[in-house]
Prior knowledge:
The protein is of the alpha+beta class. The chain has helices at residues 16-30, 76-104, 143-153, and strands at residues 5-10, 37-47, 51-62, 65-73, 157-162, 167-173, 179-182.
Amino acid sequence: xxxxxxxxxxxxxxxxxxxxxxxxxxxxxxxxxxxxxxxxxxxxxxxxxxxxxxxxxxxxxxxxxxxxxxxxxxxxxxxxxxxxxxxxxxxxxxxxxxxxxxxxxxxxxxxxxxxxxxxxxxxxxxxxxxxxxxxxxxxxxxxxxxxxxxxxxxxxxxxxxxxxxxxxxxxxxxxxxxxxxxxxxxx
Length: 187
């Protein structure tokens, strides 16, 4: 059964061979989950020092849990291999944490919401312009689960619906180490 995969190319045309290779490699990660979909952004950059370089960014949504990997490589196929290795490592880490929770008797993590990211390419647009809008389903989770989701995505913050108080909260990575939780006070 083919993986639901959306592939976009920037500064390059995505050939059927590249798409097929990407699907075949991602199947290894999807075997760890029962269902899901993937989005891949393939970009060709030109650098003065190294010439052409490829950026391979893949986001997997597996029943609400997001895994994201981004790799820069000189060769597109090796970049795909590297990003799949990153995603496979994240998936195995997520699965093992989930199994630990089940052994401890804690509830399994609610399948998480989604990523909130703002990536502005330098020198292209003013700082105040919104470059990307992401929409995602919201599922309640506790702060520990939100931290896990943030770590899986490789972000410094994560917006989530707190299942304990039914409010939107933000967890973030503190500069000095550890994590912080922002709980808004309505007033």
